[in-house]
Amino acid sequence: GRRGGGGDAAEAVANGGRKAAQNGHGAANGAAGASASKAAVPSAKPASGGGWASSPVLEVLPYAVALWAAAATLWYQGWDLRPQQVSANKPYADFESFFPFYMTEHAVENNRRMHLVGTTLVVLLTLREPALILAASMGASVGYCLTPLLMGLDTGAVEGLAMVAVFLLATRKLTGRWSPGVAVLFLGYSWAWVGHFFIEQNKPASFIYPVYSLFGDFRMWFNVVTGRLAF
C-alpha cells in the first residue's frame, strides 16, 4: 500500500512538473511574440507641424513676394537701368517696344501655330500642377529685373539661365520633383524652336531677349484665344 501510494505521488509530482514546464515555455513564447509585435508596429507619434504651417508654398512665398515687388516697381517706375554701352543686338529698351519686332519674327502662320501648340500645352500642364504658376512667376521676375542690367551683353544667356534656374529650383521646392519644370521647358521651347528653325527659318528671339520673348509668346497666345489674331 505504501509503495503504491508513493508511486502515485511521485507520478503526480512529475506530471505537475511537466505541466509547469509547458506553461512556462508557452508564457515565454507569448512574451517573445508580444515583444516582436511591439517592435513591428511603429509608435504613433504626432507629426510635428503639418498643414499650412509646413507648406512649401509658405516657405517660398516671402521670396516670391520680394521678386514680384522688385519687378513691379521696375515696371511701374519705368526706370532705365541699362548700362551706358548697350549692345547693338539689344536695341529695345522694354517689352512694349520689343513686341512689334517679335511679331515680325513670327510672320509665318505655321510658325505661329507651332508656338500656340507649345504654349497651350504649357498652360494645360500648369493647370494640372498649379504650383508651376508660382515658380514661373518667380523665374520671370528674376529675368525681368536682370534684362535691363545686362543690355550690354550681346546675348540673353545670363538672364535666360537665371530665369530657368530659379524656375526649376522653385518647382523642385514646391512639388518635390524636377520633372514638371523640365516638362514645361521642353514643351514650350521645342515646339517654338521647330517653328523657327524649320518653318520660318530664323533664330528665336529668346536667344537675345529670353524674358521679353517669353512674354511675347503668351501675349500672342492670348491674342489668338481672344480673337484678336488669326490662328
TrEMBL record:
Residues 9-32 have a biased composition (Low complexity). InterPro entries: Mpo1-like. Pfam families: Mpo1-like (PF06127). The chain crosses the membrane at residues 116-137, 149-170, 182-199. Residues 1-32 are annotated as: Disordered. Keywords: Membrane, Transmembrane, Transmembrane helix. This is Uncharacterized protein. It comes from Bicosoecida sp. CB-2014. The lineage of its organism: Eukaryota, Sar, Stramenopiles, Bigyra, Opalozoa.
